[in-house]
Amino acid sequence: MIKSSEEIELLRIAGKIVGDTHNYLKPYIKPGITTNELNKLAHDFIISQGATPSFLNYDGFPASICTSINEEVVHGIPSDRVLQDGDIISIDIGACYKGYHGDSAWSYPVGTIDEDKKYLLEHTEQALYEGLSMVKPGNKIGDIGYAVEKYALAYKLGVVKELVGHGVGKHLHETPDVPNYGNKNTGMTLRKGMVIAIEPMLNLGSADIYILDDDWTIITADDKPSAHFEHTVLVTKDGYEILTKR
Ligand code: MG
Ligand code: MG
Fold first, then answer.
1. Domain-by-domain residue ranges, the chain?
2. Residue 245 pLDDT
3. Who's near 5: CB < 8 A, 6+ residues apart?
4. With CB atoms 3.0 to 4.6 Å apart as the test, which of 3, 120, 130, 196 could cross-link to 147 if both were Cys?
5. Residue 45: enclosing H or E segment and its boundaries?
6. For residue 114, how far is its CA from the centre of ligand 1 (angstroms)?
7. Ligand nearest to the CA of 168
8. Which ligand approaches the C-alpha of residue 94 most closely?
9. Could you write out the DSSP letters of every residue in 119-184?
10. Which CATH architecture has domain 5-242?
11. Which of 154, 237, 139, 152 lies closest to 199, judged by CA?
């Protein structure tokens, strides 16, 4: 799980490509665009950077990014659906550069959103930072999940538990699992050179989810909106470095 300096250099490039792809997409996320169009823009951008989209064909996933709208939690498949004013959309992007991956999801407002959705986006993003603040050598995986869950519960948000963060490297999903819940001082110890993705998925209503008949899209059981914020980070000597920063 400890990456060499050569591997870290490639993971930095992969992460930068993912962050740059988010920056590139952001101005297009407006009412009237389809998620297929966003997928095509992201796909072509990733290829133009000398990388490949990590999600395309991953376990048979049919697109280059995941686009999850409103009550869709994660793994939404791009389609001809047109974004509407007032939607929120979570876009999950992975890129593979010379065999190493980067992974980052972000939730965006489409046009003008209501106060409930603003609240959800603001506090899910902050939950990510609460998790990140626990990343340093000697701390445990459980410290991250504890911080995310404690923050989410303080703001009465539902914490999705069936899906978790993960190690990142030659594979998009590696050991260890990084849950968005847990107990302090439990689980694997973080060490310098580990690379992990932290990715809270929080719901405005209950934590319950289910999967649609397409076998991919996860949605909230109560149809209330869900948000997803994720960074891939390197554990450094005294903290962390965000590899997928914008
Ligand atoms: Mg991930
Ligand atoms: Mg992701």
1. 5-242
2. 95
3. none
4. 130
5. helix 35-48
6. 27
7. 1
8. 2
9. HHHHHHHHHHHHHHTT-STT-BHHHHHHHHHHHHHHTT-EE--SS-EEE-SSSSSEEEEE-S---T
10. Alpha-Beta Complex (3.90)
11. 152
Record the tokens describing residue 135, joined without a space: 């990343």
Contacts of 226 (CB under 8 A, 6+ apart): 68, 70, 71, 72, 73, 90, 120, 160, 201, 202, 203, 204, 219, 220
Instruction: Please write the tens of the pLDDT for every residue from 123-173.
Output: 999 999 999 999 999 999 999 999 999 999 999 999 999 999 999 999 999
> 241 C-alpha vs ligand 2 centroid, how far in Å?
17
d(Cα 176, Cα 56) in Å, to the nearest integer? 23
In three-state form (DSSP H/G/I as H, E/B as E, the rest C), the secondary structure along 54-106 is CCCCHHHCCCCEEEEECCEEECCCCCCCECCCCCEEEEEEEEEECCEEEEEEE
How far is ligand 2, taken at its centre, from the CA of residue 105, in Å?
A: 5
Q: Is 210 exposed, middle or buried (0-12, 13-18, 19+ CB in 10 A)?
A: exposed
Ligand 2 centre distance from Cα of residue 94 (Å): 6
